[in-house]
């Protein structure tokens, strides 16, 4: 299957529009209020943080998205609408109602997300008067204004769009993300918005989104802690007129694979936008279970000694072995193989005779891969980690 990257981000799919405006939440006339809208009701899916303390806006989104349909996603930045009690719920519902009036849809068809600082009431005096302008400014070229409006600590825009063939029709997926300096626990500050003109059932859109998030945004490590996805929301309006994805067949697999490809690119951008422009993929193969593979990969990714070594251009097997030893997972030393890129540095638990020049060339790159084979089973998992 050919995937063609195209311009437009979340407005690249047919029937989607976006806008972003400044309301004064953030200083210097910076955009802080965004709208992404389908011109028809769309299937909707969401994956949300498991954090105990959630944004009140997300609580309302989870209620509105329960029926599997929506028309629009609205995001404010600069204020997370968290720890605001019942007032935060009421404020979020009011924004949904006001946007719905402008779009001639139901309030439950509007999904309102908030991101930024916690513990301060939403500045309704700024948001409420801006709703009409937000809707009035939406266009089929408003993706960059919308991205600017959802960013907080981000230093760069993060969006992609792809076009591909599905069920004999040309279809498109657009994605964008906000996030930088992501930290555990799961209120990690990653907000993902996905649009597509693919005709897919709401149940399979939800399943696809859950699968992709679990393999991408849930596998980022920054400062040694796994990041989480605060919210990922997807709209599929079906305007591409493909016959429809109604079962987990080849069309479903193709859609999910393209979505995962785009979200993997977003993950790289998220890590690059943290403390360092340098990052490492830590992959553990042949583990006894997926859980053990993830635990081993995270043990290495969370090792400050390992990250410091790579950031300084040093290949030291001790930091890798010490991290594995501290994971709590049993493995046999004589079956341990480790590769830096395509250069084997440990063979059957002993230091391999590697080419120092080849290793130094790998360490000089901004993207480094480490592969660990433990030979206790058949399962694989990996983590993308920043180096600082």
Order of helices and strands: EEEHEHEHHHEEEHEEEHEHHHEEEHEE
Q: Report the principal-axis shape.
A: globular
What is the CATH level 1 assignment of the largest domain?
Alpha Beta
Structural class: alpha+beta
Stretches with pLDDT under 50, minimum 5 residues:
183-187
Beta-strand segment tally: 17
Strand composition percent: 25-35%
Looking at this structure, what is the CATH superfamily of the largest domain?
L-amino peptidase D-ALA esterase/amidase
CATH topology assignment of the largest domain = L-amino peptidase D-ALA esterase/amidase
- Rg computed from alpha carbons, rounded to a whole number of angstroms: 22 Å
Any idea what the CATH architecture of the largest domain is?
4-Layer Sandwich
Mean pLDDT: 90
Helix content: 25-40%
Q: If helices are DSSP runs of H or I spanning 4 or more residues, what is the number of helices?
A: 11
What is the terminal-to-terminal distance? Answer: 37 Å
Major beta sheet, specifics? Answer: 9 strands, mixed
Our count of domains comes out at 2
Provide a descriptive summary of the structure in words:
- The protein is an alpha+beta fold and 388 residues long.
- The chain folds into 2 domains: 4-272, L-amino peptidase D-ALA esterase/amidase (4-Layer Sandwich), CATH 3.60.70.12; 279-386, ArgJ beta chain, C-terminal domain (Ubiquitin-like (UB roll)).
- It is built from 11 helices and 17 strands.
- Strands 1, 2, 3, 4, 5, 6, 7, 8 and 11 form a 9-stranded mixed β-sheet that branches.
- Strand 14 (343-347) and strand 15 (350-351) form a beta hairpin.
- Helix 1 crosses helix 2 (85-103) and helix 8 (290-301) crosses helix 10.
- The longest helix is centred in the last third of the chain and has 23 residues, at 250-272.
- The chain is globular, with a radius of gyration of 22 Å.
- The model is unreliable at 183-187 (pLDDT under 50).
